[in-house]
Amino acid sequence: MMSARNPRVARTTWAVIGGLVLVAGIIAIIVGAVTSRGPDATVTPPASSDPTPQPNPTASAPTTAPPGNVVDASVAERGWVPEPITTDAETYVQAVLAAASTFDTTRSSRDEWLAYLDTWFTPDTRYESEADRAETMKASQLELRQGVVPPQEVWDSLAGQDGRVEADVSGDIALAEVPEDASAQMRIATGDVELTFTQTDGTGAESSYTEDARVSVQVLCGADSVPSPNTSQRAGDCKLVRFFTEPLES
């Protein structure tokens, strides 16, 4: 939940946003598909305020940015979406929405994929202290693991069928202002995602099917964004702040 050291944000922001934290719809789609075919009041930040380590990832997935205009193009070899280097919110959101549900169980482990997704995050700048910002970012990363991506048992079920999922973002991205954001650097973005599941049967033959989801995320595109270390990203490039449990419509 919001730190007591910033009560104005806690009182106003989360009254507006309510109890939404992550993309639970994606989990429902992935869990249902696997079983049938083979700042927020509900978030409690961890006690530690140490900044989350930013791994230097090395991973087939679509990219919404031109070749070369990404943090690390090689991550596509591991079945992940490359993070674009851009100041354009719509371009970045398309990649974020795809990244949270694009993976290949034959090319990486769940933990490796999650460590990579952690590198997309930047602190929520509505918190005044560095400790509060670090704790809140950790909470968002924890909720990514608990609510957005498939749990380990679902990953293992997909892996047993050499499963992979690719997400494609289609249609317009709806952008809205973030409450209590004095910098006006952050946006809440909502878009439609089509998930394509590909699996093999006992004979090794592949089959695919699609499912749809509507997802909202919060991003920061402005001078206060924190770039991934040892990359071409710079302060001001867009970064991820958090996911929501349900799509937020204006």
Shape: globular
The spatial strand order of the largest sheet comes to 1-2-3-4-5
Helix-strand string: HHHEHHHEEEE
Number of strands: 5
Verbal overview:
With 250 residues, the chain is of the alpha+beta class. It has one domain (7-243). 28% of the residues lie in helices and 20% in strands. It is built from 6 helices and 5 strands. The chain has helices at residues 7-17, 24-36, 89-99, 110-118, 130-148, 152-159, and strands spanning 103-104, 164-177, 186-200, 206-220, 239-243. It has a 5-stranded antiparallel beta sheet with strand order 1-2-3-4-5. The protein is globular. The two termini are 23 Å apart. The model is unreliable at 1-25 and 35-67 (pLDDT under 50). The chain crosses the membrane at residues 12-34. Residues 57-67 have a biased composition (Low complexity). Keywords: Membrane, Transmembrane, Transmembrane helix. Residues 38-69 are annotated as: Disordered.
What would you say about this model in short?
The chain is an alpha+beta fold.
Walk me through the topology:
Elements (H helix, E strand, L loop, with lengths): L6 H11 L6 H13 L52 H11 L3 E2 L5 H9 L11 H19 L3 H8 L4 E14 L8 E15 L5 E15 L18 E5 L7
Antiparallel strand pairs: 1-2, 2-3, 3-4, 4-5
What structural keywords apply?
transmembrane, globular, transmembrane helix, 250 residues, 6 helices, five-stranded antiparallel beta sheet, membrane, 20% strand, alpha+beta
